[in-house]
Amino acid sequence: MARMKFLCDAERCIHCSGCVTACKNEHEVPWGINRRRVVTLNDGKPGQRSLSVACMHCSDAPCMAVCPVDCFYQTNDGIVLHNKDLCIGCGYCFYACPFGAPQYPSTGNFGGRGKMDKCTFCAGGPEVDHSKAELEKYGRNRIAEGKLPLCAEMCATKALLAGDGDMVSTIYRERVMARGFGSGAAGWGQAYGKKG
Amino acid sequence: MRWTTILATLMIATLCWASPAPAASSDDDIPSAAQSGQVTLPDTWRAVRQGEAGFIAGQPASRGVLIQSEGETWRAARNGKLAWYGGLALVGVTLAIGAFYVIRGKIMLEGGPSGTSILRFTKLERVGHWLTAGSFLVLGVTGLNMLFGRWLLEPIIGKTLFSWLTWAGKWLHNIGGFFFIAGMVLIFVLWARDNLWDRYDWGWIKDGGGLLKKGVHPPAAKFNFGQKTQFWMVIVVGTLVASTGLNLLFPFTLGDIHLMQVMQLVHAGLAVVMVLFILGHIYIGTIGMEGPTSAVTTGYVDREWARQHHSVWVAEEEGKTAKPAE
After folding, report:
1. What's the confidence (pLDDT) of residue B255?
2. Using H for helix, E for strand and C for coil, what is the string for B149-171?
3. Is A157 in CB contact (< 8 Å) with chain B?
4. Of the candidates B273, B281, B240, which has an alpha carbon nearest to the alpha carbon of residue B86?
């Protein structure tokens, strides 16, 4: 089985935020939540780079490890999903996540955060595939249709890569070889590194 | 001289250009920045790995952080040291209390009850006790459930019911905290003076509180040294647990995510310490000893029990008022 991974090529990202918009539109993500975000480093200085980041679907996912109600699960493709019916909105996954992926509909006190929302790698959730409940809670399930995440599909410069980890890294390696510069693949070590 | 320098520079540049040749690297099989010759930003990527924030238009600065590796530290501390040492301590202390019960047995009232009683705690004092104790029981159970429930309770009752219980528990925990704070303030006002060190405490410590040997009853005023330790533990640790708890209730008001992580660890760690102390308190107040429980229910205790355990206090009370207790 394929092991799904994200990779953002900082040498190609032009900070158009097309991935953010594509995601928000495809999944009808509520106001105030962006499952993906584009961060600019060295803004306005030499060496400026932008990176698109969302849930990286880590191998040994910290969110999964700290969740008090065990609402996360990992698919055979390595995609980290969660069950919103079980989520109690405690915020622990946000404290643990290296990428700041978990989002909450409200930032209220008293732990009034609501159910956590995050990138699903366009794989929906535990509800029946393509059901109304799945669409409303988790967004569209493109993986079940044999498609890849829309953010990467829509990326104009093909900076954001999503898919089988081996293919993604092969493409990226070929790019780095061909252009002879610009590597790093920020976050790969953190997400898929040490723990296999 | 000058043209040789230019030539050398060109040669080096050409060499670099011609040999990107990335070999094995640290990040899986992705070539690292250092191995590709040209426009690399090793400092930028290192900074990103260490939590340096970038910029996102229209979003809070904290969202600009790409990699927050402290989260892994927090996870390791919470799921590792806190859960394991906390769990071992809870099991260990419970077993120790059980062993104490088996060896020492229930500490009986010597010579039996006198039949007359004396008012130990007024209604206000009992309200203070139960405001603190009642909320603490709820907070303790729901808090331990947040830390251990997933491993202990969830496999038994199933995910759905467990999630519902934990959700309800979280709300009880959030609200219960305020009752605990109110109780703590009340008992501090009522009992702080009686919990200051006095001349009987040293004797009580030397006699081990009379806990270990039958028939040993070191004199004590209203509270003995053991109770004083318990009291100041509740006040000091309780204040710390309450203040860190308030910080968790109002997240990100005082600081960033790193402060939240530290607050959660301090809160949970100290709360476990508190539970350990209170286990002892509950034991000696109920199954461990004959006589004291009614002090916090009806307010009255048997005069003989009071004489054995709080001789100085009884003498003071009897001196204060000539008329016997109702």
Report:
1. 87
2. HHHHCHHHHCHHHHHHHHHHHHH
3. no
4. B273
Q: Retrieve residue B50's tokens.
A: 């260490």
DSSP structural state of residue B78: I
Contact between residue B36 and residue B22 where contact means Cβ atoms under 8 Å apart: yes
> Would the pTM count as exceeding 0.90?
no
Helix then strand count (H, E) for chain A reads: 7, 6
In this predicted complex, what is the ipTM?
0.91
Residues in A 96-125 with any Cβ partner in B closer than 8 A:
96-100, 107, 109-111
pLDDT tens string B249-287: 988 888 899 999 999 999 999 999 999 999 999 999 999
**A81 contacts A74 by C-beta, under 8 angstroms:** yes
Q: What's the CATH fold of domain A4-192?
A: Alpha-Beta Plaits (3.30.70)
**Which of B55, B259, B263 is most worth mutating to test chain A (most A CB atoms within 10 A of its CB)?**
B55
Query: What integer is the mean pLDDT of B101-129?
Result: 92
Q: Are B183 and B242 in contact (CB under 8 A)?
A: no
d(CA B139, CA A29): 35
More confident of the two residues B27 and A91: A91
State how far the Cα of B117 lies from the Cα of B99, in Å rounded to an integer: 32
Q: Is residue A11 a contact partner of residue A173, using CB atoms and an 8 Å limit? A: no
Residue A151 touches partner B, C-beta closer than 8 Å: no
Q: pLDDT, tens digit, for every residue of B302-321?
A: 999 999 999 999 998 888 76
